[in-house]
Amino acid sequence: MKHKHFNIDEIKRAINKSVLCWLATFSKDNIPNVSPKEVFTYFEDDQIIIANIASPQSVSNIQENNQVCVSFIDILIQKGFQIKGQAEIIDAVHPDYSGMESTLLKITGGKYPFKTITSIKIEKVKPIIAPSYFLFPEITEKEQIENAKKTYGLN
Ligand SMILES: Cc1cc2nc3c(=O)[nH]c(=O)nc-3n(C[C@H](O)[C@H](O)[C@H](O)COP(=O)(O)O)c2cc1C
Fold it and tell me: Is the CB of 35 within 6 Å of ligand 1?
C-alpha cells in the first residue's frame, strides 16, 4: 500500500517510544471526548489499534461517529504524531480480531481483558514537535531529553 503523505516506519518508531496515546472522539451531540490509552500499537501498515479495556464513552462515540484523532509523543524526546482517520470497533467475530489481539497481548501479557479493539485507519498525519526544537534550533535531542527529565523530576 502506498503512503503519499506519511512514512509509516517513522510512525511505528514513535509509537514504540510512546507510553500512551490520547484518543479524541465525538459524542452524538458533538461534544469532544479525550481519554488516555496505554495499550496501543500499529497493525499492518495503515492502522493504529487500541485495546478497549475501560473505554465505554470512546466506544459508543465511535459507533455514532467514526471520525477520531489520536496523539502520542515520546515524553523525553518530545516528538510524536497526531493522526486522524476513521475508527472501527473490532469484536471477537471480526476476521482481524485474533491478529490484533495477539499484537496487543504482547503489551499487556494478558493481564487486562479486552472488551473489543478500536482500529483506526491512518488517513491524516501531522508530526508533533516541542516548540523548543524550532525556538532554539541548536538544541539536540540529547539536551531535550535532559530538559524533559528535569521538568518531570526524573533525574
Ligand atoms: C495511564 C492510563 C492508561 C490507560 N490505558 C487504557 C487502555 O489502554 N485502554 C482502555 O480502554 N482504557 C485505558 N485507560 C482507562 C481510560 O482512559 C479511562 O477508563 C477513561 O475514563 C475512559 O474514558 P472514555 O470511556 O471516555 O474513553 C487508561 C487510563 C490511564 C490513566
Answer: yes
